[in-house]
């Protein structure tokens, strides 16, 4: 069923609302990475003297050029790992658009869900971005210590983080924070499996840029298939009314 949810999301990629979120997420991601690199390069140039006296070489004036070239290679390397967390965080800012498109097409009987709002979405996205970047950078140590296990660690960690955040944000729209937490804990196994499926394309260049939008759509389908906790009043959540 999780694979079926994913295939439904793939078939809806042509939806204009999907393309809008994808393009916005990519544009903001590239802009942020370039801004981060420009700030890092500026700091590097500020800290590096114009010339350095080295034993046996005398005055050397190309140290800053060497560091600049090295910083470009470092940024290209890090962008492979940081592009997806950053893109995912930005996409979660516009998650309402993807989820609304999925519900309008596949669940037209539902009443529209309240939108998260920019401030709440930004707060959640910022926290998610910090966790994703921190976890992926910390995982480098595990990759170096256990190289054969690197693919498993990568998929398990990113699958857990993707599933945990995206499912929560989608459930939050209809259940509130308390209900979303309860539902996520109750179905964490299935959510983790779905997140791991979303993590598989992360290793494929270009295709991995579709993961944030496909993930939001897939978890919307998953949310509507799973039983929800009861509303505070004791009645079933209104989005389950058929």
Give your account of this protein's structure.
The protein is an all-alpha fold and 242 residues long. It has one domain. It contains 8 helices and 2 strands, in the order ααββαααααα. It has helices at 2-11, 16-47, 63-93, 95-106, 118-145, 150-186, 188-199, 211-225; strands at residues 52-54, 58-60. Strands 1-2 form a two-stranded antiparallel ribbon. α3 packs across α5 (118-145). It is globular, with a radius of gyration of 22 Å. The relative contact order is 0.14. Residues 231-242 have low confidence and may be disordered.
Distance between the termini: 20 Å
Mean pLDDT metric: 76
Strand order of the largest sheet: 1-2
Helix content: over 70%
**Which geometry do the CA atoms define?**
globular
Main sheet attributes: strand count, strand direction, barrel closure: 2 strands, antiparallel
Structural class: mainly alpha
Give a quick precis of the structure:
By secondary structure, this protein is mainly alpha-helical. It has one domain (2-23, 82-240). Helix content is 73%, strand content 2%.
